[in-house]
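Q: what sequence does this backbone want?
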């Protein structure tokens, strides 16, 4: 099965057997270069997952089992710098999750168990830990303050992700933005 762009260039290639996707599935950029490929043995999205930039460098590389990330999952910038190195078991983050800035400097490590964040480490410019959070189970509130002691933010979290109404303030104390989060995803509110 092939799809095409308006100019006749192949946009995607898929194989089907008895109506079920089989083998390698590929998606292309309009210039014909590979953008993404997945494996579907026996109709199940299992195997290497790759999404590429236009120049062919990897943007995402991971491993899927039954359509869920399982094992290493990495995200790269267009210049090749690694910005996220995560590990999954059955679609849930497990173990050390490492994050880097646009220069490749290690900025954060998150320790997760079955998708729940248990600890967070924030690293300074020297590479030393400057903040370490032990995340309690259930709900809690993180409050940040400006140097003069006025509130900078009030962020409810549960299991290490935003959960509830979060508010950020200007230095004069007025609300800068607020929003409601459910399991780390913005639900409703104003920005």
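A:
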């Amino acid at each position: 099965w092939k799809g095409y762009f308006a100019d006749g260039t192949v946009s995607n290639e898929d194989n089907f057997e008895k109506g079920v996707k089989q083998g390698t599935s590929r998606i292309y950029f309009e210039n014909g270069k590979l953008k993404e490929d997945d494996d579907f043995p026996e109709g199940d999205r299992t195997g290497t997952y790759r999404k590429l930039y236009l120049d062919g460098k990897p943007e995402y590389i991971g491993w899927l089992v039954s359509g869920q990330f399982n094992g290493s999952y990495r995200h790269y910038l267009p210049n090749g710098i690694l910005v996220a190195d995560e590990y999954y078991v059955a679609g849930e983050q497990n173990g050390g999750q490492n994050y880097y800035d646009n220069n490749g400097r290690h900025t954060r490590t998150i320790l997760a168990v079955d998708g729940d964040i248990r600890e967070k480490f924030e690293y300074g410019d020297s590479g030393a830990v400057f903040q370490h959070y032990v995340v309690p189970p259930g709900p809690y509130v993180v409050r940040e303050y400006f140097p003069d002691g006025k509130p900078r933010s009030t962020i409810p979290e549960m299991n290490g992700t935003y959960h509830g109404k979060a508010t950020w303030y200007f230095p004069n104390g007025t609300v800068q933005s607020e929003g409601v989060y459910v399991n780390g995803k913005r639900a409703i509110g104003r920005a």
